[in-house]
């Protein structure tokens, strides 16, 4: 995958930008479209400089219409292009839900593979930056529930670039979720050259013996902080960054929980119907007899992400994760 | 990418001329409203425009000082919002967006609306009995709602009408078209009030649509379409009144395109120099809605230095008081997160709330 190579320290958003630049350079069929992605370089600057470098034909602003963006991207993808469509915030993807659910995800099946949709949909998600209403939704489970679309959610710049390139190379639709609160707060070394990270593979980011913590995206720093704190009290944690939310890497989960026998799942999304439940079912199917305590979930409640004065009361915190670690240890 | 050569079809601009009552120099150019222009009306316009601009500038300052979160300024659009809101009847329904605080406040909402930009849901609440909806953030979604409220008014045989505010960008969403079509089919008493401020964040209208006007979109739905100078508070007020009258008389919906301009950024988080020349934007102040009204007042004997000074002083006082009220609001109540999802919370929410409250109290 990766040989000795030059690296640069990048923020999460710079790595995403770098990933897009890499594929734009490599393949003429790659195009970028969305609201304000051109001249403005995106409201978060994810596409900064790309229109200047690749021209308006390949990096272009669309009218304000998510159904239009995704519907036309599906059409273009079927006809030989490789669109990377930006949805300005995940909370504004809902008008496109129909296009994703009824066309992007089903075209291969409905045409027995004659028509396919190699489409990447990028969307920033999550709370914690005092954004206005709706801008903070974390609804990955609405998409992991759909057959026919893969969902990835990197937490580091390195993974972001590699997964973005894999998403573009993937022959099927991929939803690429970006933790907007990590955009500038998370930095890391990123190779300058092209590399890929396999979709469907998680990563162990901390080794421990007592508890497995599973999380992804924006919640990774929260999970890591809790693991550090727990270690001060003598409890060591395996921390798994899932990276891909569909299909989930069941082997990495099974391997870890069979060692620890205890598991805490951390996600920002609402509890009911959240991905934590799928993880529990994987543990149930693979590792039931290894478990020493009921699995704990630390998640958002079944309520809307509050207006920002109260958003910190919605978000999982290291303290809540530590409490869950305490519970699985002291069961 | 595939932007075609602009058609030079002038037909639509001729079919939908930009209506004006008072021109940019403050001259009355349409005599038909002469008798309806009273001192009382002129003073109401002026007072409200000044208050709204004072509020907007204050909000921008508060944001800069870290006393307010991200805020979407409306400076330049005051006449469109104030004029249309003043045309409403007490009992009408209003569906504003995030940029329409001047409309909401003119129609009766309190200045506490500002607190919504400090993440307080309380900022969304209308005074008792007023049908002013929380500002709509997802673009164009409020249009079908307004149509529905109007359909219900018609169903009940009431004289209520509804007004929906939206921007030029909003016309690209399906909800815009669906809202208009339903209104047309059911001849709902609703006014679709578009503020064409030339931009949707960074996207100029020339790239948003390939049609010359927004008003012409009314043709497809066979509803009345009106294009007007949105910086002329007189034409905004009179045309909105007429549209509401038609609506109440069963003559169906109207699409109004009010041409205006936002001088500033899309929101305080936006940097407009990335996509347009702000010096050019500042030149639009030649067409400022407040200066225009001032010129009109001077020309027509409504100008009174002492009264003008009083209006400005009172605006500052009122807004300073509102800011003090906002900054001394009691802290937000965590219970609110859980208590307004359903009338009766489900067991999941009850359990989650109980667990969280215990955690907050440091129990267990
Ligand atoms: C469905 C949806 N998509 C995207 C956004 C992000 N967004 C907020 S305002 C805006 C531009 C709106 O332009 P316009 O309708 O002209 O109104 P203006 O802001 O100029 O008042 C966009 C794209 C949103 N709020 N909702
Ligand atoms: Mg606009």
UniProtKB/TrEMBL annotation, chain A:
<dbReference type="InterPro" id="IPR029061">
    <property type="entry name" value="THDP-binding"/>
</dbReference>
<keyword id="KW-0560">Oxidoreductase</keyword>
<protein>
    <submittedName>
        <fullName>2-oxoisovalerate dehydrogenase</fullName>
    </submittedName>
</protein>
<dbReference type="InterPro" id="IPR033248">
    <property type="entry name" value="Transketolase_C"/>
</dbReference>
<dbReference type="GO" id="GO:0016491">
    <property type="term" value="F:oxidoreductase activity"/>
</dbReference>
<dbReference type="Pfam" id="PF02779">
    <property type="entry name" value="Transket_pyr"/>
</dbReference>
<dbReference type="InterPro" id="IPR005475">
    <property type="entry name" value="Transketolase-like_Pyr-bd"/>
</dbReference>
<feature type="domain" description="Transketolase-like pyrimidine-binding">
    <location>
        <begin position="10"/>
        <end position="185"/>
    </location>
</feature>
<keyword id="KW-0786">Thiamine pyrophosphate</keyword>
<dbReference type="Pfam" id="PF02780">
    <property type="entry name" value="Transketolase_C"/>
</dbReference>
<dbReference type="InterPro" id="IPR009014">
    <property type="entry name" value="Transketo_C/PFOR_II"/>
</dbReference>
